[in-house]
Amino acid sequence: MKKGLEFFVRLHSALEILLEFFNADGKGLSMEDLMIEDYKILLSCLVTNKSTTEEIITSYYSRRAQEQMSRSDNSYGELDVVCYYNPMDSKLIVEVNKAKNLRALDCNGVSDPFVMIELCPRHMFNLDPQRTKVIKKTLNPVFNQSFEFNIREEQCKKRGASVVFSVMDHDMMFSNDLEGEAMISLETIPGINLHGASQQHSLKLVKPVLTAEDQTMFTILSNRHGDKKASDFVKKRYHAIDQAKEV
Known about the structure:
Blueprint: H1 2-23, H2 31-34, H3 37-49, H4 53-69, E1 78-86, E2 91-100, E3 113-120, H5 122-125, E4 130-131, E5 142-150, H6 153-156, E6 162-169, E7 177-185, E8 200-204, H7 212-222, H8 228-243
């Protein structure tokens, strides 16, 4: 694996040298002319390929957290939670209060929702997910449940460190369906962020889909044969996408 990464490091360096050569300190082609779309695609591919598996997965969750903060579409419903860190006890406190305006995934026009709470990326935490109770036959479930995770403060401050919420529809006969996902960057929560961060969050749910950027990332990780972290991550994300397919 290390040799493979070094190959892409050299390719990336060669691309930078070519860019500088054709720009010639501003006397040749302009950077605007050089940095065409094909160049950007190639650069992104090389940067990802030369990154470690942990760096790629961390970037994925960091990007997802940024997207969550700017999300305005609530067509898949919302999840109301409280999240803060208690430095005295080294505990992350997560309260799942309620969800609202979920989509009906059962043939009777309702759902049987529950929420999975997981700290990601797994290589940072490696803790088992926790889950709420199942609330039967509703699109506006009230949970009012609290959960604790024993983690260190420095873990919360790492780039990409997040708490991920998966709202599921419980199914007795078949696999559970995914209503939607949401997440909070741990570096923004009270107890970690000291600049007036709010404990209360009304998170807009989203259905995971396979974007072109994700497809490239997953393909690169899938080609890292023998890398369990890479294969486990890709398998999990594809499973979430399958669970979220419209019924």
